[in-house]
Amino acid sequence: MDGKAYTPDEVAQLFQISKHTVYELIKRGDLQAFKVGNKMRIEHSEIERYKESTKAPAKKTQMEQPDTHASLPIRLSGSHDFLVEHYVKQTSKDLQIQIQPTYIGSLEGLMMLYRGQTDIAAVHLLDPSSQEYNLPFIHQLFVYESISVVRFVSREQGFIVAKGNPKNITDFQDLTRKDIQFVNRQKGAGTRFLLDSILSRNGIDPVKINGYSNEEWNHLSTASHISRGMADVAFGIQSAASHLGLDFIPVAKEQFDLVFRFTNENKQKLTTLIHYLQSPEFKSSLTDLEGYDIKDLGTVIYQTSKAEEIPC
User: Fold this and answer.
1) Do 143 and 74 belong together in one domain?
2) CA 92 to CA 73: how far, in whole Å?
3) What's the predicted TM-score (pTM) here?
């Protein structure tokens, strides 16, 4: 048994997480893997070691119990965003609070929060029925948990195209043209939710879009397909286009929120992180804001009765 090696898919099933999360753990060095040809494998002993490393420490008597939670990082999972990256760096610099991010898409991030596998979820999920962001999903999932939903930013979503828009792409019907190659986001990404909702409203069959099944896991990777000439158009955020000197055609404004789930172990840190998000110091540190609206930054838009009372 000890000599068995597992595939990333098998490890994902063991831990009830996505395969992408397994690859993120390997990439960060949290989980050691080896290659057989071009296939990744993880030994049974390494899985057992990782399981032990994630267990909570045994409870000590009151006399000998130190503040073990002070050094534990806060886990953030969900959608990737450049301003979220900035928030992670600033909290480490200004607060000495380490946030460990895993960018796996809005839906998986929210599910990890629901399962108690993360402390903060970064989400921008459009509910097709109500056309409302995030809260319809949160109301369904978090009934007994202690959570606060804090508005982060509003973002422009639209078509990312080459400089000068050489293929003259202006609307969603253009994606079905034979001369257009598209690159998509992965299932579970908030951007994918928005795209599919718009395609459905416009009666567009995704089968007719060349490259609809070609998926990338973050905005920059998607936009890089355009900059390298591997695709003609992507659907994503304006800041990704700006980072690579590409053109952007705005389509919709979306709401990007951070969902904080309080526990006895993390509530002090999470409260500090929310207050910092609301502070003039953090707002003044934001400089690259093309495609963003931060007027509601730090506003608590929803909290359960069990949540820490955070000023709105």
Assistant:
1) yes
2) 10
3) 0.79
Q: Are 82 and 95 in contact (CB under 8 A)?
A: no
Of the candidates 288, 171, 295, 176, the residue with the CA atom closest to the CA atom of residue 241:
288
273 located within any domain: yes
Q: Per-residue pLDDT for 39 more than 60? A: yes
Q: Do residues 21 and 102 make contact, with C-beta atoms less than 8 angstroms apart? A: yes
The Cβ of residue 273 has, within 10 Å, a number of other Cβ atoms equal to 23
**DSSP string covering 194-246:** HHHHHHHHTT--GGGSTTTT-EESSHHHHHHHHHTTS-SEEEEEHHHHHHTT-
DSSP H helical segments within the chain, as ranges?
8-15, 19-28, 44-54, 82-94, 106-114, 135-141, 190-201, 219-227, 238-243, 267-277, 280-285
- Residues 142 and 82 placed together within one structural domain of the fold: yes
Q: Write down the pLDDT at residue 263.
A: 95
C-alpha separations of 90 from 93, 94, 233, 256, 279 in Å: 5, 6, 33, 19, 12
Judge whether 62 lies within some domain: no
State the pLDDT at residue 74: 97
166 lies in the same domain as 239: yes
Average confidence (pLDDT) over 207-232: 95
Residue 207 has pLDDT above 90, yes or no: yes
128, part of any domain:
no
Q: Give yes or no: residues 247 and 264 share one domain.
A: no
Domain count, the chain: 3
Is the predicted pLDDT of residue 68 greater than 60, yes or no?
no
Q: 8: closest CA among 53, 34, 40, 52?
A: 40
Q: Residue 310's pLDDT is what?
A: 67
Classify residue 38: in a domain, yes or no: yes
Structural domain span for residue 32: 5-54
Give yes or no: residues 40 and 83 share one domain: no
